Inverse folding.
């Protein structure tokens, strides 16, 4: 009995953790290309979900067409956000940029509230709602979708950053913007790309979780914060460390809620966040990095 | 300038001025609703309903020849803002009574203002501490949580399901429900075997439900407002939990069925009668008010009238009746409100008295079950 429970907690945790990981990677991509933390990341998650809803309900598209459509529109929103809010800034100090992203998130949330209203909406699952039993625990087909899509996205990410010219250029920007500029990389274009990629990823996360968690104009805040936690645990790497961070966070939350007390579920996430920031600001797996000091 | 336009404007201005001079001054009623923010699901239908019903009263000639004027502000669910706006309503707008606020937290913050300024306040929020102990100037229309809890426990007692697991949301609504669930358990011979909470924005409650599945609970009672309970219902289905699931009146709207989908089937919950107005027997004394409210709301806003709007409907009608009985000043309105007997409203049958400013009995709730995506009254 006890083993069944632990298994269920772990499975539930892994599937929520995968969502956190996906959102967390969005944070770290922008961080690595620009050095800023984009607090509007959660809003793109929300946009992804709500746009899918509109594509399904208003445009009457089938789900396989609605998803790319929603991702495309969210990417466009990310592009506009960078062009209109981030790029025109005269003195792009990190603190200014961070505050702008917070403002942007409030703006996007407000517009979403006006467009879609304040109600929560449900989106049908991709492939039914019949639970799948694993040992004594159960998960939904949608959880498998989440895990699979997360893996696919991470693989694509890895490939992009290590095996394509523009991915390598983006990493160069992360190491040293000025040097990257000197060797002929268009840093501003890379920043734009990073916003587009991360908003697309946020949107994908929003779309695949919406059937489970439902979607409303204000879901971005909490999911964004949890994703941020995952990215911090992973030391803001845009690779496997953030994924592990997300999964770890999900499992700890779930185990904490099940074994200790459900009242402390969110507290667990934020205590981990604070501990990491205090004790290991380079992330759980990162080597201390002299550049950051 | 176009002469015709000028003369039209002139006529319009004269007409406006003249009505002001000749008709008796309107009676100003203040309203505080959380139209935006987290409690917007309460505030919006409340504001809509209050507007609709005041317009209708005015169209029918007002109350004793005087029109009503609704001065409505949005508190955004913020207690500090609610207090500022209440003061504004009293000092600047000079209202004779205030309807709202929408949430218990805001109401508790506004109560000292209403008491000090001696303006009757008819709250639309549910917390039982609003009128317990009785405050001279404060009334409420929303049903107490305790009545909803009583309904569920009564059913459980009848069906000999004594071991109960509770799962409540960690906000004001859930905390108040949890308190009531624990306080009344002993009275109905019920034992709470598992006591869990979840956050208002949580997206996965399988951990809590797994824990409950491992306990010997015979029923699960979940206390929250959308979307949390829909997630709970879905998670329970995912985990194959066979224990009967009860919800609170916080989700008694079609929205819950829409969100939870198939997982909503078989869920039982106490609900105000507005939800099942068409299923009620003809002998039901509230039926007339209920049916007319639902129809009106549908015509005005193309949406289903819910019990949240009903709280505002009751508040305006209670005030109207008090004024009809001759009250004009805040203090006489208060006295007349307290004398309300057998008012068949949306929330139930109101009987205010000096000892009871909540005014409703257990008949305010019916237990309903969700079957084939619709409500069925549980006998």
């Amino acid at each position: 009995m006890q083993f069944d429970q632990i298994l269920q907690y772990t499975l539930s945790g892994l599937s929520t953790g995968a969502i956190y990981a996906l959102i967390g990677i969005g944070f770290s991509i922008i961080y690595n290309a620009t050095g800023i933390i984009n607090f509007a990341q959660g809003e793109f998650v929300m946009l992804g979900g709500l746009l899918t809803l509109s594509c399904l309900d208003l445009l009457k598209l089938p789900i396989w067409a609605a998803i790319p459509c929603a991702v495309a529109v969210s990417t466009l929103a990310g592009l506009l956000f960078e062009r209109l809010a981030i790029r025109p800034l005269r003195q792009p100090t990190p603190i200014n940029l961070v505050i702008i992203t917070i403002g942007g998130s409030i703006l996007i949330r407000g517009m979403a509230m006006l467009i879609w209203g304040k109600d929560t909406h449900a989106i049908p699952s991709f492939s039914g709602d019949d639970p799948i039993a694993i040992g004594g625990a159960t998960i939904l087909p949608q959880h498998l979708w989440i895990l699979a899509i997360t893996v696919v996205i991470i693989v694509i990410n890895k490939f992009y950053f290590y095996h394509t010219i523009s991915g390598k250029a983006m990493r160069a920007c992360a190491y040293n913007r000025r040097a990257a500029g000197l060797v002929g990389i268009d840093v501003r274009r890379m920043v734009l790309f990073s916003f587009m990629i991360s908003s697309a990823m946020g949107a994908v996360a929003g779309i695949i979780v919406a059937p489970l968690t439902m979607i409303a104009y204000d879901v971005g805040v909490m999911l964004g914060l949890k994703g941020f936690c995952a990215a911090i645990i992973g030391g803001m790497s845009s690779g496997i460390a953030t994924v592990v961070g997300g999964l770890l966070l999900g499992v700890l939350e779930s185990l904490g809620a099940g074994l200790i007390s459900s009242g402390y579920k969110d507290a667990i996430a934020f205590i981990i966040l604070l501990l990491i920031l205090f004790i290991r600001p380079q992330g759980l797996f990162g080597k201390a990095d002299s550049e950051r000091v | 300038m176009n002469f015709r336009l000028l003369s039209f404007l002139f006529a319009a201005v004269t007409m406006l001025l003249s009505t002001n001079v000749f008709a008796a001054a309107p009676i100003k009623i203040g309203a505080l609703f959380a139209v935006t923010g987290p409690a917007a699901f309460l505030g919006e239908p409340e504001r809509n309903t209050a507007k609709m019903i005041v317009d209708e009263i005015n169209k029918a000639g007002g109350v004793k020849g005087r029109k009503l004027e609704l001065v409505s502000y949005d508190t955004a669910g913020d207690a500090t803002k609610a207090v500022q706006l209440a003061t504004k309503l009293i000092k600047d707008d000079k209202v004779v009574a205030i309807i709202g606020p929408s949430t218990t937290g805001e109401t508790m913050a506004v109560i000292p203002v209403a008491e000090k300024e001696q303006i009757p306040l008819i709250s639309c929020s549910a917390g039982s501490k609003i009128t317990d102990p009785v405050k001279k100037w404060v009334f409420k229309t929303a049903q107490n949580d305790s009545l909803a809890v009583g309904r569920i426990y009564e059913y459980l007692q009848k069906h000999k399901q004594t071991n109960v697991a509770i799962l409540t949301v960690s906000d004001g609504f859930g905390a108040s429900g949890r308190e009531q669930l624990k306080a009344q358990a002993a009275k109905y011979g019920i034992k709470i075997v598992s006591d869990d909470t979840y956050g208002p924005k949580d997206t996965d409650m399988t951990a809590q439900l797994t824990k409950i599945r491992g306990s010997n609970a015979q029923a699960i009672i979940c206390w929250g407002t959308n979307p949390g309970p829909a997630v709970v219902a879905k998670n329970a289905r995912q985990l194959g939990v066979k224990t009967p699931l009860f919800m609170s009146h916080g989700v008694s709207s079609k929205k819950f069925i829409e969100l939870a989908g198939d997982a909503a089937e078989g869920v039982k919950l106490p609900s105000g009668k507005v939800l099942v107005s068409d299923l009620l027997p003809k002998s039901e004394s509230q039926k007339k008010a209920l049916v007319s409210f639902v129809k009106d709301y549908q015509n005005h806003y193309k949406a289903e009238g819910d019990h949240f709007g009903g709280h505002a409907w009751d508040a305006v009608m209670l005030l109207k009746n008090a004024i009809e009985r001759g009250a004009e000043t805040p203090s006489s309105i208060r006295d007349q409100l307290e004398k309300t007997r057998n008012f068949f409203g949306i929330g139930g049958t109101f009987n205010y008295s000096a000892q009871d400013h909540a005014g409703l009995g257990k008949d305010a709730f019916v237990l309903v079950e969700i079957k084939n995506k619709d409500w069925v009254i549980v006998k």
Summary: The longest strand of chain A covers residues 132-134.
